[in-house]
Specification:
The protein is an alpha+beta fold. It has helices at 16-19, 28-41, 44-49, 60-68, and strands at 71-83, 87-98, 103-115, 118-127.
């Protein structure tokens, strides 16, 4: 099975070493992909641990884990990634469905900071996005959204 982040590698050889804490992410985009996998898997503790320490809220780990039980993450699209020595940004779209069955898009420009050799998520700028009825369905079926996942809307 391909990694949840959309790479051609398996999860075990792609993002698992980062999510499991055996390797630090060498690049901000790598951390972004691992964080997406953590959302898919409900690994709230990883998401809190990879947030800038001053912004960490330990209680968020349980909230994220609980939210994951009612969310199906479908696809990650990295739109652009820019990295300097100690700062980076990654723009992405993450497609998901919650318990109501409606597909949604989370579009964010995330900023990352490198501290003591480790990348951390700092904050994000969020964009409102809706999926057009005549667009290809993000689930990968090849059908138009209105004839696939959008038919429930």
């Amino acid at each position: 099975m391909s990694c949840y982040c959309g790479s051609d590698k398996t999860y075990e050889t792609c993002c698992a070493p980062y999510v499991n804490g055996t390797l630090p992410a060498q690049h901000a985009e790598t951390l972004m992909r691992a964080r997406y996998c953590a959302y898919v898997l409900g690994r709230g503790e990883f998401l809190v641990a990879t947030t800038v320490p001053a912004r960490q809220v330990p209680e968020d780990a349980d909230l994220i884990t609980a939210h994951a039980k009612n969310t199906s993450w479908l696809k990650l699209d990295i739109l652009r990634s820019v990295e300097a020595d100690s700062e980076a940004s990654v723009e992405f779209k993450a497609y998901y469905k919650e318990a109501d069955g409606i597909m949604r898009v989370h579009h964010e420009l995330s900023t990352f900071i490198k501290m003591e050799g480790h990348w951390y998520y700092d904050e994000g700028e969020f964009y409102h996005v809706s999926i057009g009825r005549n667009e290809s369905c993000p689930c990968g079926s090849g059908k138009k959204y209105k004839k696939c996942c959008g038919s429930a809307v």
